[in-house]
Task: structure prediction
Amino acid sequence: MTRMQSDVCIIGNGAIGKTLALGLAQAGIPVTLLGRPPQSPVRQDFDIWDVRVYALNHTARAVLSSIKVWDALNADRMAPIEAMQIQGDGASHPARLNFDAYGARVSTLAWIVEDSNLSQALDAALKFAPNVKFVNARAVELRIDAASAAVHLDNGEALSAALLVGADGAHSWVRNQCDIGMDYRSYHQRGVVTNFHCEKPHRGIAFQWFAGSEGIVALLPLPGNMVSLVWSAPDALADQLLTEPLSRLTERLEKFSASELGRLTPLLPEAIKAFPLSLIRPHAITAQRIALVGDAAHVVHPLAGHGMNLGFADVAALIKSVTQREAHRDCGDARVLGRYARARKEDVLLMQMTTDGLERLFGSEFEPLRTLRNFGLNFVNHVPGLKRLLISHALGHRS
Result:
């Protein structure tokens, strides 16, 4: 059996895994990334837009800037979020919560970036990363001892590293191999995503409507007069949205958005996708010689748009813990991993509690609770100090 060695082995080559590999490699730490090597960039047709987009905050931008990837993104395909308008479901007493960049004392609240734009920029950077080795195979067995973590592959080879990182998503193989328990809650919803052209300018505003039994509707700004839909729809409604003509989905959306955005027109070629929504809360994000990042470490409801941002914050914290370790400690030392876990505990717990609590609160049809939640939105909207605290966390700033 051929055995390869590296300081760090990362399983999972999505955006979070690739970002971590680049950050560690640029800090001089040899990394093995289990997954397909970076592909040659494919020229994007400007008329075709991903239905999967991310609202990247200032933390994500700082991480991507530090590894020289942010400026490599195609800026023509990015849209800044200048303001947010959140509307409740109060019929007789409309509730609204507004945020804007001016009030937050920043130039931009966040940036909308397509999945393909981010992936291509990361792949281009990885092609020139001398400390990153790609192994295109699948992990089938994990063995851990006091000195290292060894991964056996389906091609008969084995990888040995001082630190093994699970960046392999919500159904993490690494997490399962470590017998890390977790709390799981299905929201019985799916995130339905597609893109539209809007009649009126969106003015860089991200719109969100809490729609009671219909879920949560968000329209995010794209370049020009285009918006990206993320509809957190109950399963039964999601089935309808996915099977009925997009013209019917447009009619449903205009019930919320017509006054702000005017007539909506599905972008061609028409495309609509959906993904299940759940809360996944592992009981730990580290184990002996193991660290979890991204969706392997936490999955939250997308109503705040911060799932990917939590992953970038994981990357920043893990890179800091590894690169600032004492000389006598290796990358997977228990003290190093303990610092990473402590650094992420508060931020992740706060986001889990916030998103799960809001989903429960706005998913109820109990009329007194409905009145209370809409009163709460209006109350927060008129308390500047509380709004600034919420904005600070949304930007990725710790207070």
Remarks:
- DSSP finds eleven helices and 19 strands in the chain.
- Residues 3-38+120-183+280-363 form a domain with the FAD/NAD(P)-binding domain fold (CATH 3.50.50.60).
- Residues 190 and 276 are 4 Å apart (CA to CA).
- The two ends are 51 Å apart (CA to CA).
